[in-house]
């Protein structure tokens, strides 16, 4: 996210995290401008900075400058980089590109340093493909870290998301499928989806 008014509108919804991208090649990149940085500092949800193969020093400085609550590492960051960030008490969401069961094996080396994993669709570029991967691959994940689902999630996938079961499934990443344009969320679309998810969950709980 980036636009101050859009940030305020989305933070009024029942969301937990809000993401801000600090990868210059992304169309959602947040430039160093007081209009944007002030909006991030004042955000009332868990502020998550998204970085791609950035140095630990730059990440640490950005966390301290903007008061970020989490960082999401979306590149090929090493275990050592995660270890350095954790030594600074920075909470980490490490993203992994998934296409097949073999891709799951490399996540376990990161468990000691990450609060969450994020499983996204494997593609050539960083920043997502807008496509969904085969979630059944995650049946092979038997780690301890909770994870978020990402990759091409759209409003019409609500039933599939609610049907997905895994003991470490912690939430979903709503991005391009809920945008008007890059970095500008469709607040009405998000609200309908979130309310729908809440009502469906409540119904399911009532049946148990």
The general outline is: globular
Structural class designation: alpha/beta
* Biggest sheet statistics: 7 strands, parallel
Radius of gyration: 17 Å
Number of helices: 6
Helix content: 25-40%
Count of strand segments:
9
Q: Tags for this entry?
A:
alpha/beta; 208 residues; two-stranded antiparallel ribbon; seven-stranded parallel sheet; 20% strand; 6 helices
Structure description:
The protein is an alpha/beta fold. Helix content is 30%, strand content 20%. The radius of gyration is 17 Å and the shape is globular. The model has no long low-confidence stretch (mean pLDDT 92).
Topology summary:
Blueprint: H1 4-11, E1 17-21, H2 34-41, E2 46-51, H3 56-66, E3 70-73, H4 79-87, E4 91-98, E5 116-121, E6 147-149, H5 158-163, E7 169-172, E8 179-181, E9 184-185, H6 187-207
Parallel strand pairs: 1-2, 2-3, 3-4, 4-5, 5-6, 6-7
Antiparallel strand pairs: 8-9
Describe this structure in a few short sentences.
With 208 residues, the protein is α/β, with parallel strands linked by helices. It has helices spanning 4-11, 34-41, 56-66, 79-87, 158-163, 187-207, and strands spanning 17-21, 46-51, 70-73, 91-98, 116-121, 147-149, 169-172, 179-181, 184-185.
